[in-house]
């Protein structure tokens, strides 16, 4: 990993001589909101039933940014946890440095090759060895709406960006916050991503952010994306600075705000508050992105811990995550869809069923996109730089669009430096 090279590697090797052959597994994760905690509790319970001890190391905040920083410090001091929530290209970065234990045994025993879609399993391997276990598939491009507020404002759920702005005007006039947004860089970047998906379309989005094509990164469509992004600010409220994503979702749940554009972990909050999909709240594809699926896959990796390559508790944890019972229970409350292709979706609500259909449709039409704002498309260096540029632009009307496009291009290229 570019940001902490040989020193970390040396610490990891030092650590690997310490044996840890207990039935304890320390897990570092960031699932602390109401919906997230409920979902991960299922796994803690299952580990307990199997006779293993889950030692919780939860670090709240900023969609994992705080947890990952803590993980780096732990790893630097030669004391990584047994398991940690890491995803996307970062799995490669940790794996290439030699930190991660292989899960090939469990993968073989549970037939991961057949159970997990190829687009997902590509993220889980380093040098063709499994080093991560996936939980789910989150769709990021959703708009969540309070059904009652829309009704009171006399608007239909918006399908396009134009419809969104028309609706937002009416909602504002009716005295509600049109768009719930927490003023944290990652939440702003999530909104930016969803507008970019709609305006650039899948092909140009891919060209810009995955192929890092300079023309696509500074195109007229990118300019339009920034313009629309800035225009949305007037529909957010003044109390957004520093507000967490789940407190932001609560504004929609409580009927203070009409809509939030956020991944489907937001649904976990509605469910934890006992709200019903289709009745109390609506899930609509983010305006202009009905055919696309921006995916975000949660996964755990396991750190090498000395005596044996992978301890029995680590193996048990990996195994349980892909067990059908857990896949069902966890995803029912987390808001995502199961990562196993063979889970019956009958008990899932209409949002999850639509998500599964959208995933299959997008896969068949080449409209699956790795989420830009959720560590799936670019590495940490680029992501931090991009968050910074996007947030600065959103929060200061004096920041120039052309200059911002040049900075976006530099940020996307930062991974290569
Ligand atoms: C995402 C993560 C989700 C959800 C969200 C907010 O990055 O993949 O599972 O927890 O952060 O915490």
Poorly predicted regions are: 1-20
Structural class assignment = alpha/beta
Main CATH class of the largest domain: Alpha Beta
Q: State mean pLDDT (0 to 100 scale).
A: 93
**Could you tell me the number of beta strands?**
15
Q: Estimate the helix proportion, in percent.
A: 40-55%
How are the strands of the biggest sheet laid out side by side? Answer: 2-1-3-13-6
Distance linking N and C termini: 12 Å
Rg is 21 Å
Largest sheet: 5 strands, mixed
Based on CA inertia axes, which overall geometry fits? globular
Helix tally equals: 19
Estimate the strand proportion. Answer: 5-15%
Query: What is the fold-level CATH name, i.e. the topology of the largest domain?
Result: D-Maltodextrin-Binding Protein, domain 2
Ligand kinds: beta-D-galactopyranose
Q: How many separate domains?
A: 2
CATH homologous superfamily (4th level) name of the largest domain: Periplasmic binding protein-like II
**Which CATH-level-2 architecture of the largest domain?**
3-Layer(aba) Sandwich
Organism: Grimontia indica
Pfam families: SBP_bac_1
Keywords: Signal, Sugar transport, Transport
Protein name: Probable sugar-binding periplasmic protein
